[in-house]
Amino acid sequence: MILTKAQYDEIAQCLVSVPPTRQSLRKLKQRFPSQSQATLLSIFSQEYQKHIKRTHAKHHTSEAIESYYQRYLNGVGRNGAAPVLLELANEVDYAPSLMARIILERFLQEHEETPPSKSVINSMLRDPSQIPDGVLANQVYQCIVNDCCYGPLVDCIKHAIGHEHEVLLRDLLLEKSLSFLDEDQLRAKGYDKTPDFILQVPVAVEGHIIHWIESKASFGDECSHHAYLHDQFWSYWNSSEEESLILWLKSPMFLKNWLLEFCRISTLNNAGKLSSPVPAPFLLTLS
């Protein structure tokens, strides 16, 4: 189903004061029944991540960390089985997995002789049974499984979805008997930044000559497009000014026009002079 700019804005506005919980997602689905659960979850996640980036610093001051840690100790002292960390995260409007990381780091600093390394922290978050305190391990586990936007569980799900859609795209290319090189093959040839697939023989799609394909399985808003253009897509074009295909699932259709317009503007080269217009990628979205 096509998602319009007005529909996207309405969903985003609805998310301003909504906590990142499964209950909130159910309410969101009730309000927007025509949108798929996957689309709403993806928008929900991106909007919440923007909020976390804006407020991240205030949760990492020494005063905030000590306050959270003492509240955690007081809470589990009264009832160690209660979801103290999860409720604390929701109360201060911070992602449960990130709150769990703060408390875990503070706990290890107090109980270990040397400061914990990032790899040790990440390993304990992925497998809370490694945490040397059973109560804290349970608290961290509750945060991880109840966080629908951050944490190792969410990262695994995102990775699996991305891989699934790359496999789907590969199967479609094979079905159409198109010759291509995938990311692994390109890296073996020495390429640094690569799209998911480069077509060895370009094809025409709706009047566009397609040289490479990039698959994005998460929701793509304007902010996401800006980031991917800067970090990835610009490096895929070569001097022949080839046209390209970006396959982005569940993107609102207004982004197609925005992206085409954005990419046609002239850019500054290293000498500070205007270069020729950059060719626009051809954006195809699949539901």
Automatic annotation (TrEMBL):
Q: Does the keyword Nucleus apply?
A: yes
GO CC annotation terms, alphabetical: cytoplasm; nucleus
- Keyword Kinase, does the record have it? no
Q: Kindly state which keywords UniProt assigns to this record, in alphabetical order.
A: Cytoplasm, Nucleus
Q: GO biological process: any one?
A: erythrocyte differentiation
Q: Where in the cell is it found?
A: Cytoplasm; Nucleus
- Going by the entry's taxonomy, the superkingdom of the source organism is recorded as Eukaryota
Matching InterPro entries = CDIN1
Q: Which PANTHER family match?
A: CDAN1-INTERACTING NUCLEASE 1, SIMILAR TO CDNA SEQUENCE BC052040
What name does this protein carry? Answer: CDAN1-interacting nuclease 1
Q: Which organism is it from?
A: Panthera pardus (Leopard)
> What's the name of its gene?
CDIN1
